[in-house]
Amino acid sequence: MKFFADECLFIATIKALRDAGYQIDSILERNLSGLCDEEIINLCIKENYILITFDNDFSNIFRFPVGSNPGIIFIKIKPATVESANPAILHFLSRNNPEIFSKALTVITKTKIRICK
What is the pTM of this model? Predict the structure, then answer.
C-alpha cells in the first residue's frame, strides 16, 4: 500500500510514517506544490496512491466519489498539530488492514474513525 502526502501534511508526519515502515511520497518532495485537487487525485489514481490530507475539500464525496480513487484519508483534527496528528494516523494504520480503507473515504478525528465505502 502506497500513500501520497498532500502538501498540507507535516514533514514530521511523513518522516514518522516512513520510520514506521510505510511507503509514502509527497507533493512537496516531488516539487508539485500548487496542484489543484483534481490534479492531485488524478496523480493518486495514476500511481495507485492513497491520499493523506488535512484538506477538507477531499472529504466531499460528490466531488471525489468513494470508490473512484485508491482512497482518501482525511485527518480532521483541530488544531492540526504534529503532536495530535501523528499518533492518530499511526494508531489507525497499525490497527487496520489496508483493505479496510482502500477505495474508501476515511475520516480520522481525535476520538473516532469513520470509513465510507
Answer: 0.95
